[in-house]
Amino acid sequence: MSREKIIVVSDNDSLCRFLFRFLSEHGFDVFCSPADHSAVIRPIRAHAPTLIMVDMTTSAMAGIDLCTEIRRFSDSPILLVCAGSEEALTISGLSAGGDDYICTPLNRELLLAQVQALIRRYKGAFPVNQRHLLHFPGLEIDLSSQSVTSHGQETVLSAKEFQLLVLLAKHPNRIFHIESLYDLIWSDSKLGDLRTVMVHIYNLRQKIEVNPSEPFYIHTVRGAGYKFNGKAAQ
């Protein structure tokens, strides 16, 4: 029987050692990753964990940013490890994508119970054969392999096109302003050319829509931005 995988995201070596030892003793495969945007993406995609633990005790703001980043490509539950005195930042972490939190100093029994409960809910909500898939009529998005199948044909997307599609598809009917899409997808870029978003939307439609001039999936909201068609998600 395969063991559930947990990734611990932290720069605190003592916390990583404790969680690795404690969770391993209780039957989990545990992997540790530095709390760095570029470093954390690869192990999450490689291991497809059933739980991600994000340390917010060293830098709560960094933890919030990491939650936002992880939520762009993973639906795995996120358990925040927080300092008990930082209630407002804990709430921000939950708003950014965290599913639950536990405060330091860690109570071992409570920690194990929360880990097991989050994994149990996750596995119940997402059967193993659908856990990393987004299904829509004529469109399937595989978050693990970063692949897209449109109307039975595999469609090759660039990294930014894929990120843009996933962001929209995970939030059907939510209107994203062009500025917001640019900030979320091109956050590291200094160019600031909003036409980049429009070009990528155009390219996406050419690749996934049956009729790009009358798109079914990605709608333009005049004067506001773009949204993923809620009817496609029903």
Helix content: 40-55%
- Low confidence ranges: none
Q: How far is the N terminus from the C terminus? A: 35 Å
Described by the principal axes of the CA atoms, the overall outline is: elongated
Question: What brief labels describe this structure?
Answer:
Rossmann fold; single chain; 234 residues; alpha/beta; five-stranded parallel beta sheet; Arc Repressor Mutant, subunit A; four-stranded antiparallel beta sheet
Can you describe this structure?
The protein is of the alpha/beta class and 234 residues long. The protein has two domains: 121 residues, 3-Layer(aba) Sandwich (Rossmann fold); 101 residues, Winged helix-like DNA-binding domain superfamily/Winged helix DNA-binding domain (Arc Repressor Mutant, subunit A, Orthogonal Bundle), CATH 1.10.10.10. Helix content is 41%, strand content 22%. The chain has a five-stranded parallel sheet with strand order 2-1-3-4-5, sandwiched between helices. Strand 11 and strand 12 form a beta hairpin. Helix 3 runs parallel beside helix 4 and helix 6 packs across helix 8. The two termini are 35 Å apart. The model has no long low-confidence stretch (mean pLDDT 84).
